[in-house]
Specification:
263 residues, alpha/beta, TIM Barrel, eight-stranded parallel β-barrel, two-stranded antiparallel ribbon, binds the ligand O=C(O)c1ccccc1NCC(=O)[C@H](O)[C@H](O)COP(=O)(O)O, lyase, Aldolase_TIM, decarboxylase
């Protein structure tokens, strides 16, 4: 069976080609938000040695199906900011994650903290789009693209003022990118072949990174004690989606989680 990322990649390539027909990159660059100054998550993390939560807004996922399809982007993302998220991540993919067309821009309109545009980037055009919709940082996934392409895309993102979170999941992906310039290194706790979450694997992989790297634990985090453990092991930030989104009150769940993390 085809890997989920391969399926997503094939779909993205088609989707992006279609969007290019409707809006040129030059048109995107003329948008108001393309010119805005971005807000740095890296600075925020370097300034405060504390567990930084990147709270994610996601309606559904390939591993869990529908999580909260009719979620209100305004109240949830505003609540995340009010409850101390260091950044908010908004899924921007419709086919696999159920994003609605205006989710990202609506979040941008009301947030003053860094906003991660969470998509599956296979083309420079999507990075221009991300900037044009008001992103501060983007995600690149090591498994999806060759190293030289990832480096080129990261360089372009930096050129237009975006920070880059590189997602990794195994030793090779980490070692291949050790010397390259990504701003934050994510380690996905979830194996996307099996959807199994393995925190011990993430801790072992994090030891391969230099102390100075900003390490982000991603996926499957549903216990403040586990976040505490990962923080003690050197992770700086925690990308949490489903745990908040499936709670009866996502922003209250973020508040409780932050209170329960021991530092
Ligand atoms: O979440 C999935 O099922 C998934 C499947 C295939 C590719 C990516 C996937 N997730 C994207 C993410 O990065 C997560 O939304 C993010 O790490 C938050 O994870 P969680 O806290 O488990 O919602």
């Amino acid at each position: 069976m085809r890997h989920i990322l391969e399926t997503i990649k094939l779909h993205k390539l088609q989707e992006v080609e279609q969007r290019k027909q409707n809006t040129s990159e030059e048109q995107l660059k003329n948008g108001v938000l393309f010119k805005r100054s971005t807000i740095s998550l890296v600075d925020k993390i370097r300034q405060a040695n504390t567990p930084h939560i990147i709270a994610e807004f996601k309606r559904q996922s390939p591993s869990k199906g529908i999580i909260r399809n009719n979620a209100d982007i305004v109240s949830i993302t505003a609540g995340y900011q009010a409850q101390g998220a260091s950044a908010v991540s908004v899924l921007n993919d419709t086919k696999f994650f159920g994003a609605k067309a205006n989710d990202f821009i609506t979040a941008r309109e009301q947030l003053s903290i860094p906003l991660l545009q969470k998509d599956f980037i296979v083309d420079k055009y999507q990075i221009t789009e991300a900037k044009a919709m008001g992103a501060d940082l983007i995600l690149l996934i090591a498994k999806m693209l060759p190293t030289d392409v990832l480096k080129r895309l990261a360089a372009y993102a930096h050129q237009i003022g975006l920070e880059v979170l590189l997602e990794t999941h195994n030793e090779k992906e980490i070692k291949d990118h050790l010397t390259t310039e990504f701003d934050l290194i994510g380690i996905n706790n979830r194996d996307l072949n099996t959807f199994r979450v393995d925190i011990a694997n993430s801790i072992a992989l994090s030891q391969l990174l230099p102390k100075s790297a900003i390490k982000v634990a991603e996926s499957g985090l549903d216990d403040p004690q586990v976040v505490t453990k990962l923080y003690q092991e050197g992770f700086n930030a925690f990308l949490i989606g489903e745990y908040f989104m499936k709670a009866s009150d996502p922003t209250l769940k973020l508040k409780e989680t932050r209170q329960k993390i021991v530092i």
